[in-house]
Amino acid sequence: MIQLVFSCSIGLVFVISALSKMFSYKKSIESIVTMDLFDKKFNKIIGVLFPFYELFLGISIFMYYPSLILNIVGVSTISIFIFMNIRGLIAEEEQACHCFGNVMKTKLGLGGVAQTSFMLVSLLPNLFIVSDHKLSAYLDSIEMSTFLATLIFIYTATIFLVRTVIDFEDDDKEKVDPRMV
After folding, report:
1. φ, ψ for residue 96, nearest 5 deg
2. Which of these, 148, 80, 98, lies nearest to 72 by C-alpha position?
């Protein structure tokens, strides 16, 4: 059941990310274009399509289809996020990533590395442990549904808090006057 909670939480993070990008669609596209992963035209295509890709991936993972291909795609996507955040961390140049649209201010760096690593560790077991548990199997009982929804909510909130706390700490360190240290 812990695999189910992890998968649903990761799926929910993808869905929230996708929806928040859709609500600030233009800014989201601009953010991806400025990341200079590929040439500008290709980056713009990625920017236009990415929220829809994330939404599809998030819903698929949330519904917890124990498909090896789906989980490989999820792990690969998260690995790309880790790479991009490490690249931002190494560059030591603060770059807004608009990962969660206007819902949550995010930037490439340590907070992103921590959050995406947390997500990767949560989804990796699906590649090695085959489970036939599906979300629908737990929806028969109101008690079990409530318990499962609570666990998923707490774990999803934890994933967001990891990033928020680290990004907030980084912002506080930048505001400290070096003469005061």
Report:
1. -65, 135
2. 80
- Domain assignment of residue 176, yes or no: no
Q: Establish if 121 belongs to a structural domain.
A: yes
**Does residue 86 belong to any structural domain of this protein?**
yes
| Greatest Cα-to-Cα distance within the chain, rounded to the nearest angstrom | 62
- Distance between CA atoms of 136 and 133, rounded to whole angstroms? 9
C-alpha–C-alpha distance, residues 34 and 50, integer Å: 15
- Report the domain count for the chain: 1
Q: How far is CA 109 from CA 48, 114, 164, 166, 175, in A?
A: 23, 9, 12, 9, 17
Full-model pTM: 0.84
**Residue 176's pLDDT band (boundaries 50, 70, 90)?**
very low
Whether 177 is covered by a domain: the verdict is no
Q: 22 exposed, middle or buried (CB, 10 Å; 0-12, 13-18, 19+)?
A: middle
Tell me if residue 171 falls in helix, strand or coil.
helix
Domain range for 50: 2-170
